[in-house]
Write a structure and sequence with these properties.
There is one protein chain. The protein is mainly α and about 525 residues long. Among the domains are: about 190 residues, Serine Threonine Protein Phosphatase 5, Tetratricopeptide repeat (Alpha Horseshoe), CATH 1.25.40.10; about 90 residues, Alpha Horseshoe (Serine Threonine Protein Phosphatase 5, Tetratricopeptide repeat), CATH 1.25.40; about 70 residues, no CATH class. It is built from 28 helices and no strands. Helix 7 packs antiparallel against helix 8, helix 7 runs parallel beside helix 9 and helix 9 runs antiparallel to helix 10. The longest helix has 23 residues.
C-alpha cells in the first residue's frame, strides 16, 4: 500500500513538473496539492507545491507550504537534509517573501541558501539583485564574481554584473562588461543591440571618453535615420565639449525630420545664443512662441535676442505681453536663464574697448541708482512686497548680500506666498549652507499652497542633498512638466547642487538617475563648477 502511494505521488509530481515547464502553474498546483495529501512529509512534493503556488501569484500560501515542510522535518526528527534541497526551499521562500513585500526577510533566506550552497547560481543572482535594490552594489558584485567565468561568460550574468558595477559607480568596469556583450563575446539573443550601444555611449560620456561615445552615437544614428532623440543626445554631447559645428549639424538634421519638434528647436535656439548668433536664435524662439503660447522660455529668449540686436521697441512690446501672460516667478526664471544663455554670445560679439571695465562700471552705476530709488520709494510705501523684492535683486547684483537677505525676508513677511522672493531666499540660504533654515522657509511657503511646479527644482535639490535622490526624481516627474521644462528643471537642480556644495557622489548619482529615470540629458557642462 505504501509503495503504491509513493508511485502515485511520483506520477503526480512528474506530471506537475511537466505542466510547470509548459507554463500551466494552476494545473500543476492542483496536482501537487494531491501529492501533498497523499504524502504530507514528502520533501519534493512540498517544494514543488510551493513553487506552483508562487507561480500562480499566491506567495502567502507558498510560505505556508514551506513552513509545513519545515514542521514535518522537525516532526520526523530528520538528522540531515540534503543542502541542495534546503537551498532550493530557501530560494523559493525568498521569492515568496519578496512578492509579499518583505525584502529583508528575502535577503536573509538567500544569504542562508548561499551559505549552504556557495555556488548556487539562482540564489546568488537573486541575492545580488536584492542587494543592488538596497544600495549595496559592492556586496552584490562580490557574490556575482563567485559564479562569473571570464573565459565563457554567461550573458545574463555579465549583464547583471555590468549593472551592479554601474550602480556602484565603477563605470570603467561596467563599460568593460557592456563592451564584452556588444562585441558578441557573450551571445544574448534577448539583448537589444541598439539599447546596449546607447547605454555604452551614455556611460562613455560620463567618464569623458568623448571620441568613443561619438563613434557609438554615429553608428546608432546611421542605423536609425529618423530618430530625433538620438540626435539630441549626440548634439548635447557636442555642446558640452564645444563642438558647435557638429551640434548645429545634428540639431538641423533633427528639425529636417520634424520641423516642429520643440526640444530640437529649443536646443538650436540656445546654441545660437551661446555662440552669438542672435538673429537665427530669434527666428527659432519666434516659431516656438507661436506654436507653444504657454512657454515663458520661448518669449524670454525672443526678448533677450531683441534687446541684444537693439530692437528695443519690439522688446518692449514683447515684455509687456510677457508680464501679462506669465507669473512673476515664471518671468524671473525664464529671463534669468535666457540672459545666462546669451552672455557667452554677447562677449563674442562685444567690440573691443579701451577700458575693459567700462561696461561693468555702467551696469553697476545703473543698479546702484535703482537701489537708491527703490530705498526712497520703500520709505513712502513700506508695505509693498514687490519693492523689497526688487531692492533685494539690486543688492545681490551689487554684492550687498546681507541687505539683499533682509529685503527678501521683509518681502516674505508681507507676503508669505511670494514665490520669486522665496526662491531667491531659499537659494541664498542653501548657498550659505543654512539648510535647516531653508527647509523651514520652504515649508512655510508651501503652507500658502502655491503652484508647486515653481518650486519643484529647489525641493528636488534639497532632496538630493538629503540623500533622497529617488524622491527628487519622482518630484520632478510628478510636477506635470513637458519634456522641455523637465530638461530645464533637471539642469536647474544640477546647477543648484554645485552651488550648494553637495557631496560629489550624490551629484553623480543624481545625474545618472536623471538620465535613466527621467530620460533627460544634462546638456550644460558642470565640470568647471565642480
Amino acid at each position: 500500500m505504501t509503495c503504491h502511494r509513493r508511485e502515485k505521488t511520483q506520477r503526480l509530481l512528474d506530471r506537475a513538473a511537466r505542466l510547470m515547464t509548459l507554463g500551466d502553474a494552476p494545473a500543476a498546483a492542483a496536482l501537487t496539492r494531491q501529492a501533498v495529501r497523499l504524502e504530507p512529509s514528502h520533501d519534493r512534493a512540498r517544494l514543488l507545491h510551493a513553487q506552483a503556488l508562487l507561480a500562480t501569484g499566491k506567495p502567502l500560501e507558498a510560505v505556508r507550504a514551506l513552513n509545513a515542510a519545515a514542521w514535518y522535518d522537525q516532526a520526523a526528527d530528520k538528522l540531515s537534509i540534503n543542502p541542495a534541497d534546503l537551498s532550493e526551499r530557501l530560494v523559493v521562500r525568498a521569492a515568496a517573501q519578496h512578492q509579499i513585500g518583505e525584502p529583508h526577510m528575502a535577503a536573509r533566506a538567500l544569504h542562508d541558501a548561499v551559505d549552504l550552497s556557495p555556488r548556487h547560481n539562482t540564489a546568488i543572482r537573486r541575492l545580488a539583485a536584492l542587494l543592488i535594490e538596497q544600495g549595496r552594489a559592492d556586496d552584490a558584485i562580490e557574490y556575482l564574481l563567485c559564479i562569473h567565468d571570464d573565459a565563457s561568460p554567461d550573458p545574463a550574468l555579465l549583464r547583471m554584473l555590468a549593472e551592479a558595477y554601474e550602480s556602484a559607480e565603477r563605470i570603467d568596469d561596467a563599460l568593460r562588461c557592456y563592451e564584452q556583450l556588444a562585441a558578441g563575446e557573450a551571445n544574448d539573443p534577448t539583448l537589444d543591440p541598439a539599447a546596449l550601444q546607447l547605454r555604452i555611449a551614455r556611460l562613455m560620456r560620463r567618464v569623458d571618453r568623448i571620441a568613443d561615445a561619438r563613434v557609438y552615437y554615429d553608428a546608432l544614428i546611421a542605423r536609425h535615420d529618423d530618430d530625433i532623440e538620438l540626435r539630441l543626445e549626440a548634439a548635447n554631447l557636442a555642446i558640452e565639449h564645444g563642438d558647435d559645428v557638429r551640434a548645429r549639424h545634428l540639431l538641423e538634421q533633427a528639425l529636417r525630420i520634424d520641423a516642429d519638434h520643440p526640444a530640437a528647436r529649443t536646443a538650436l535656439a540656445e546654441q545660437h545664443m551661446r555662440c552669438g548668433r542672435f538673429e537665427p536664435a530669434a527666428g527659432c524662439w519666434h516659431r516656438l512662441a507661436r506654436a507653444h503660447r504657454d512657454r515663458p522660455d520661448a518669449v524670454a529668449g525672443l526678448i533677450v535676442c531683441a534687446i541684444t540686436c537693439c530692437r528695443h521697441s519690439l522688446a518692449e512690446r514683447l515684455l509687456a505681453d510677457f508680464r501679462h501672460r506669465f507669473t512673476a516667478a515664471q518671468q524671473h526664471a525664464a529671463l534669468t536663464r535666457a540672459w545666462r544663455l546669451s552672455i557667452p554670445g554677447q562677449l563674442l560679439n562685444r567690440p573691443t574697448v579701451s577700458d575693459r571695465s567700462a561696461p561693468l562700471d555702467v551696469l553697476a552705476g545703473v543698479t546702484a541708482d535703482a537701489a537708491r530709488t527703490l530705498g526712497q520709494v520703500i520709505e513712502e510705501h513700506p508695505d509693498h512686497a514687490d519693492l523689497h523684492y526688487h531692492l533685494a535683486v539690486c543688492c545681490t547684483q551689487l554684492g550687498q548680500h546681507e541687505r539683499a537677505a533682509a529685503s527678501l525676508d521683509r518681502a516674505l513677511a508681507l507676503n508669505g506666498g511670494y514665490l520669486a522672493a522665496a526662491r531667491r531666499r531659499i537659494d541664498d540660504l542653501m548657498t550659505r549652507r543654512q539648510r535647516d533654515a531653508a527647509v523651514a522657509l520652504l515649508a512655510a511657503v508651501l503652507e500658502h499652497k502655491p503652484d508647486t511646479r515653481e518650486l519643484a527644482d529647489l525641493q528636488a535639490a534639497i532632496d538630493v542633498i538629503a540623500d533622497r535622490v529617488d524622491l527628487a526624481v519622482e518630484r520632478l516627474r510628478g510636477a506635470g512638466l513637458d519634456r522641455v521644462h523637465l530638461q530645464s528643471a533637471a539642469e536647474s537642480v544640477t546647477d543648484a547642487l554645485y552651488r550648494y556644495g553637495a557631496d560629489p557622489n550624490r551629484i553623480h548619482r543624481w545625474r545618472r538617475v536623471v538620465l535613466t529615470g527621467l530620460d533627460v540629458n544634462l546638456a550644460i557642462p558642470h565640470a568647471a563648477a565642480a
